[in-house]
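Memo subject: From amino acid sequence to discrete backbone structure tokens
Action wanted: Derive the backbone structure tokens from the amino acid sequence.
How to read it: Take the token row as a discrete description of the fold.
Attached in line: The record itself begins immediately under this heading.
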Amino acid sequence: MEPIIIVLIILVVLVFIALMKTVQVIPQASAAIVERFGRYTRTLNAGLNIVVPFIDSIRNRIDLREQVVPFPPQPVITQDNLVVNIDTVIYYQVTDARAATYEVASYIQAIEQLTVTTLRNIIGGMDLERTLTSREEINAALRGVLDEATGKWGIRVNRVELKAIEPPTSIQDSMEKQMRADRDKRAAILTAEGIRQSQILTAEGEKQSAILRAEGEARAAALRAEGEAQAIRTVFESIHAGDPDQKLLSYQYLQMLPKIAEGDANKLWIVPSEIGDALKGLSGAIGNFGPMGGGGGGGSTPITKTPAPRREQPPID
């Protein structure tokens, strides 16, 4: 009985293994390559699949999702003979599991080598400055070449990115000095423009202030002249209305003489020639009212002048 039990146990295990090999569950966004006696038979898609046990075998399981592969820095020589290190990132997706399995031994390694050679061809026709400023152009050219070459491998390159472009250390130092000099230059230009604008505004303000001051002084002078003219006109009209005679004018003239001589700085006083006429007019006016004028009353006492006593000087020995 014991050998029969052992045989039954062996049969049960074989059936269980056969069932496991017969039923294949493929996850979503995945595919499996089935070979029969070493020859490609079919591709298993996502879901439950039945294969012939011990005859069909699963060669490879491939992820159909988009993959991201970063490649290490690659030294590339530019057109002006400068070596730059470029890091690249490739976004690809397997579209044909059979081609990705049988058309190329390792599509990851193939994509990396193709990326390096294509990148060297593209960068070799650019100088350093254009390389640093033309990432979009490089990405588009690289993606076009990769997508065309990897199509027969069942690979679609969706995107290519240059993660970093590192020029030599000496070039980086020179670029930093140039950028610092450009920033200093722009700062100096902005400072000069600010000073220039400030001086222009200051000059404009002083000009406007001078114009306004001159206009104010001119208006004030005009108003003063107009006031003086009005005062002279008023005085002249008043004198003309009062009809003064020569005697009053002579008396007013004599009253103004002491004011002419006022002040400590007056060392020399020049008597105008018109003073004689004024004195004649004034003496005539006084003579009309004095005792010598012939018009005085009998009760007035005449005024006699007594000569001053004469002092005799002693003889000179």
About this structure: Residues 27 and 46 are 5 Å apart (CA to CA). The chain has a mean pLDDT of 78.
